[in-house]
Write a structure and sequence with these properties.
- The complex is a heterodimer of chains A (426) and B (254).
- Chain A is of the alpha/beta class and 426 residues long.
- Chain A has a domain of 51 residues.
- Chain A contains nine helices and 20 strands.
- Chain A is globular, with a radius of gyration of 22 Å.
- Chain B has 254 residues and is α/β, with parallel strands linked by helices.
- Chain B has a single domain, classed as P-loop containing nucleotide triphosphate hydrolases (Rossmann fold), CATH 3.40.50.300.
- A six-stranded mixed sheet of chain B has the order 6-9-10-3-11-12, with helices on both faces.
- In chain B, helix 5 runs parallel beside helix 6.
- Chain B starts with 5 loop residues before the first strand and ends with a helix.
- Classes of the chains: A alpha/beta (426), B alpha/beta (254).
C-alpha cells in the first residue's frame, strides 16, 4: 500500500473530544499512562475498512462514525434512578449491571468478583490490563481501553466450584458508547457459570472486550444473549486461553443489530483442553450479524467443536468466518466446525467461510457449511399430520434452533434460552 | 362396491411428477372398514398414488377425481386432508432433530382437534394414551422424548409411523411400504397396531412389495398396479399367487 494512501486512513483523533474524555474517566496514574500509550498507538493505526479481509462482508464505516460521535456526546442514562430495575442476588444468582460505564449491584459481591472501582487491590487489574494491551492490537480493543472507566474481574480460587450464575447485564436507555471490560480468571480445578446479557433500548454502540484465562482442570460455562435495538451497534472481542484439561462451553444467541460483530479467539495452549462454541444468530429486517472465530490448537489432544446456526429473515445479512489452526506439535487434535443457515427470504444473505489450517497429520478435523430454505419434505411430513403450513414452518425453524439449546445442560439457562426462542422466533 | 357407502373413490386418475406421467387412469374404491393391498413392481406408481392422496404438492393431477367421504379433495391442502382422517405412513419417514416426538404428536393431535372445534387434549390424557400405544407396538419410552425419527433405525421409524397413526386414529390409513426394513418381530408388533385399529371405521390401503405383511393382516382386496393403472384385482389369494409367480405373468398379458 502506498504511504499516502495509508495516511488517509489513520484515525484522526486531534479534532475529537476523545482524548480528554477517555483520559478523564478514572483518576489513577497507572491507568492514565496506559491510556496515553494506547492513544498514541491508536493514532498510528489504520481504520479498518472493506479492504481488510476480515471486514470484507461488513461495512464498518457507519460503526466507526457512530462510535466517535457517541464518545463525544457522553450522555447519561436514567437507569440508575430507577432502582427496582436492579435485581438483588438470590441463592444461585449474582446480578451485576453495567450502566453508564460502571458495574453496579445492590448487595455486596462475593469475594471472587471485584470491580476496578471498588477494589483496593489495583495491582492485579494493572497487571492484567497491561498484559491485554500488549497482546491485542486492534483499533476497537484500543478504543475500549481508552474509554474504560471500570473493569469487572471474576477470579475463582483454586478448587473453588461455584454453583452460581453470574449475570452481567449490559444495559442502557439512551444513545451511548458502552465499553465494558471483563477479566475472567479461573484458577486450577475451579468452575463457574457466567451469563452476559446485552440489553439496550436505544441506538448504542457496545464495544466490549473480554479476556478469559482458564487454568488447568477448570471449567467455564459462558452464556450470552445479544438483544439490541435495530439502530444499535455491537462489537465484542473475546480472547480465551485454555490450559491443560480445562473446558469452555459457550452458548450464545445474537438477534442482530445495525451491525453486530462477534470476534472470538481461543488458544488451546496445553494438552486435553477443550472448547465448545454453540451459537445462534437470527437477524431480521436489515440487521446484520458477523461472526469471526479463530481457534488455535497449540498442544496435543485438544478438542474444539463449533456449531453456528443462522436464521435469516427479510433483507438481513450474516457472516460466518471460522478458522481452525492446528500447529505442528498439536498431535491427536479433534476439531469439528459446522455452520448451517436457514434463509427464510429470497433477500436474506449469508457469507460463510470455514477454514482449516493444519500442520500435522495426526488430526481428525472436519468442517462444513450449508445454507438453504426450509426443507419441503419436512414441511410435507409435518403438514401430513394435520398441522397448518405456517405452523409447520414455525415448528421447523424452532426445531433448528432447539438443536443448539438442547445441548445446554444447566436447566435454568436452558429455560432462559427456550423462553428467548419463543420470544424471538414466534 | 356401491359408491354411496364408499369412503374413498378414485376415478380415472392421471398424475404426473416433474412432467412425467406416473398414474395413468386409475380407478379404486375403498369402503368403510376395508383393507386393500396394492402390490406391483418398482416404478409402477404405488408411492405416487400414496403421495397424491395425501396432497403432496409435486403430484400434478391432470384428470380424474378423488372423492373422500362424499367430497372432492383434490383442492384441499395437505393438512385439511389429514384433519379429515387421511393418514400417510411414509416409506421413508423424515427426521426432524430438535422437535421431540412427544411435542410433535401433541401438536398434531391438537391441530386435528382444533379443526373439529374441540378443545386441546389435557397433558394427562395425552400421556396416558401415548404410553398405552407405545406399549402396544413395543416402542421404548426413551424414543418418545427424542427428536422425531432422529437416529432411529429403519424399523424404529416404521414403528413410529404406526404410533402416530394410532394416536391420530385416521379413517383411512395409507401405509407406504411400512413392512420394508422390518424384521419378523417388528412386523408382528406393527401388525398388532394395525389390527387393533381394524374396527368398523378404519380402512387401510397397504402398499407393499411382498406378501409378508399380508400374512399378519389379511386384506379384503389385493390390487396389482403396473404402469400407473390397476391391471388385476382379487382377494387375498392373489397375493400368494404373486409371491409364487412374480408379476411377469400379469404384465406380459397386458
Amino acid at each position: 500500500m502506498a504511504d499516502q494512501n495509508k495516511m488517509n486512513t489513520h484515525f484522526d483523533l486531534n479534532g475529537s473530544l476523545l482524548k480528554d474524555y477517555g483520559l478523564g474517566l478514572i483518576d489513577v496514574d497507572w491507568l492514565k499512562n496506559l491510556k496515553k500509550e494506547t492513544l498514541a498507538r491508536l493514532k498510528t493505526q489504520n481504520i479498518p475498512s472493506k479492504k481488510d479481509e476480515e471486514w470484507r462482508y461488513t461495512n464498518i464505516e457507519p460503526l466507526v462514525q457512530k462510535c466517535f460521535e457517541l464518545v463525544a456526546k457522553n450522555s447519561i442514562s436514567t437507569l440508575k434512578k430507577n432502582k427496582p430495575f436492579i435485581q438483588k442476588h438470590s441463592d444461585n444468582n449474582i446480578f451485576i449491571y453495567y450502566i453508564d460505564g460502571h458495574f453496579c449491584f445492590v448487595d455486596n459481591l462475593p469475594s471472587y468478583i471485584k470491580t476496578l472501582r471498588n477494589s483496593e487491590d489495583q495491582v492485579i487489574f494493572q497487571t492484567l490490563l497491561n498484559y491485554d494491551v500488549e497482546k491485542i492490537h486492534t483499533p476497537f480493543a484500543d478504543l475500549n481501553t481508552l474509554m474504560l472507566s471500570d473493569v469487572l474481574m471474576i477470579e475463582t480460587l483454586k478448587n473453588q466450584k461455584i454453583d452460581a450464575t453470574v449475570h452481567i447485564i449490559i444495559c442502557s436507555d439512551v444513545e451511548q458508547n458502552i465499553s465494558p471490560r471483563l477479566l475472567v480468571q479461573l484458577r486450577e480445578n475451579s468452575s463457574i457459570r457466567i451469563f452476559e446479557h446485552c440489553l439496550t433500548s436505544n441506538s448504542c454502540v457496545i464495544n466490549s472486550l473480554t479476556d478469559i484465562n482458564c487454568e488447568k482442570n477448570s471449567q467455564l460455562d459462558y452464556y450470552k444473549i445479544i438483544d439490541e435495538q435495530d439502530q444499535g451497534y455491537h462489537l465484542s472481542l473475546s480472547n480465551i486461553t485454555l490450559a491443560r484439561n480445562s473446558y469452555l462451553n459457550l452458548f450464545s444467541w445474537d438477534s442482530g443489530a445495525n451491525i453486530s460483530r462477534n470476534n472470538i479467539h481461543v488458544d488451546l495452549v496445553e494438552e486435553n483442553a477443550s472448547v465448545n462454541l454453540n451459537s445462534l444468530f437470527s437477524p431480521k429486517e436489515k440487521l446484520h450479524v458477523d461472526n469471526q472465530l479463530k481457534i488455535k490448537h497449540l498442544a496435543e489432544k485438544c478438542e474444539s467443536s463449533l456449531d453456528y446456526r443462522g436464521i435469516l429473515q427479510d433483507q438481513s445479512t450474516g457472516v460466518f468466518g471460522g478458522e481452525v489452526y492446528v500447529a505442528q506439535e498439536a498431535r491427536d487434535t479433534q476439531s469439528d466446525m459446522k455452520n448451517r443457515n436457514l434463509l427464510l427470504s429470497d433477500n436474506a444473505r449469508i457469507n460463510t467461510k470455514p477454514v482449516l489450517e493444519i500442520y500435522n497429520e495426526d488430526v481428525q478435523c472436519s468442517h462444513s457449511a450449508t445454507s438453504g430454505c426450509l426443507d419441503n419434505d419436512k414441511l410435507f411430513y409435518i403438514q401430513s399430520r394435520g398441522i397448518e403450513e405456517a405452523d409447520a414452518m414455525n415448528i421447523l425453524i424452532q426445531s433448528f434452533a432447539s438443536e443448539i439449546i438442547e445441548k445446554i445442560k444447566n436447566s435454568q439457562m436452558k429455560r432462559t434460552f427456550q423462553e428467548y426462542l419463543v420470544q424471538k422466533l414466534q | 362396491m356401491s359408491k354411496r357407502n364408499s369412503l374413498l373413490s378414485i376415478n380415472n386418475l392421471k398424475v404426473s411428477i416433474a412432467e412425467k406421467i406416473i398414474i395413468s387412469g386409475l380407478n379404486l374404491t375403498i369402503n368403510h372398514g376395508e383393507v386393500h393391498a396394492i402390490m406391483g413392481p418398482n416404478g409402477s406408481g404405488k408411492s405416487t398414488l400414496a403421495k397424491t392422496l395425501a396432497g403432496h404438492p409435486e403430484c400434478n393431477i391432470h384428470a380424474g377425481s378423488i372423492n373422500y367421504l362424499g367430497t372432492k379433495i383434490i383442492d384441499l391442502s395437505v393438512e385439511e386432508r389429514a384433519n379429515k382422517g387421511i393418514f400417510l405412513g411414509f416409506q421413508y419417514p423424515i427426521e426432524i432433530p430438535g422437535l421431540s416426538n412427544t411435542a410433535f404428536l401433541k401438536a398434531a393431535l391438537n391441530a386435528q382437534r382444533k379443526s373439529q372445534g374441540d378443545e386441546e387434549i389435557t397433558a394427562v390424557d395425552f400421556l396416558k394414551e401415548l404410553k398405552h400405544n407405545a406399549e402396544v407396538i413395543g416402542m421404548d419410552q426413551a424414543f418418545l422424548n427424542r427428536g422425531v425419527n432422529e437416529g432411529f433405525s429403519g424399523g424404529e421409524k416404521k414403528r413410529n409411523e404406526i404410533l402416530q397413526m394410532m394416536m391420530l386414529k385416521p379413517r383411512l390409513s395409507i401405509l407406504d411400504e411400512t413392512d420394508s426394513g422390518l424384521d419378523i418381530d417388528a412386523m408382528k408388533t406393527v401388525a398388532n397396531g394395525l389390527n387393533s385399529m381394524r374396527k368398523k371405521d378404519s380402512s387401510f390401503l397397504l402398499i407393499t412389495h411382498y406378501d409378508r405383511l399380508l400374512g399378519y393382516i389379511k386384506p379384503d382386496f389385493v390390487h396389482v398396479l403396473s404402469k400407473g393403472r390397476i391391471i388385476q384385482s382379487g382377494d387375498s389369494t392373489l397375493a400368494n399367487k404373486l409371491e409364487e409367480k412374480g408379476y411377469e405373468w400379469l404384465t406380459k398379458t397386458k
